Amino acid sequence: MTDPASLAQRHATAFTGTMRPWSAEEFTTLLASPHTYLTDTQHAFALTRIVADEAELLTLATNPAHRRQGHARALLQTLEAHASTQGAVTIFLEVSAQNDPAIALYLSASYEESARRTDYYTSPTGHRIDALILTKKL
Asked: What's the pLDDT at 65?
């Protein structure tokens, strides 16, 4: 389940209709980096990049049939603990300003909005969407 093609397929399932899913080639590149950490379960996965004292949550994808069952929250706890053991003192992420369920998850996990990137994402229909930058001290 952790090969790049499988991750790309799972990512596409999780983000169908909302954002551009990542390709197998993109996952191949990310997984080749010694700074990238994959947290994977049967129903969800997350990729985190850890550099110096900072971690970045690159993506968190949950199978739509298994949302709101605690999978994403458990992944967050696991990747935050790993990032902390690797010396990260903060973690940040970008999330679509229109992704209310994800924003609610992150805010409930003590992330705080630190910035906004105007027109950062492009929806499948061509609409521009702001990204929120959320940050948490580990």
From this structure: 84
Mean pLDDT of 6-25: 85
Count of CB atoms situated within 10 Å of the CB of 87: 13
pTM above 0.85, yes or no: yes
Q: What is the dihedral of CA 121, 41, 24, 90, to 10 degrees?
A: 50
Decide: 103 and 75 in contact? Cβ < 8 Å: no
Is 121 one of the annotated active-site residues of the chain? no
C-alpha 4/C-alpha 31 separation (Å) is 8
Catalytic (active site) residue 80: no
Distance of CA 39 to CAs 52, 62, 77, 79, 100, Å? 19, 12, 10, 7, 23
Active-site option among 37, 56, 94, 111: 94
Q: What is the pLDDT of residues 34-85, one digit of tens each?
A: 999 999 888 999 999 999 999 999 999 998 888 988 899 999 999 999 999 9
* Structure token digits, residue 77: 């706890």
Catalytic residue among 37, 106, 111, 121: 106
Euclidean distance between CA atoms 10 and 122, whole angstroms: 20
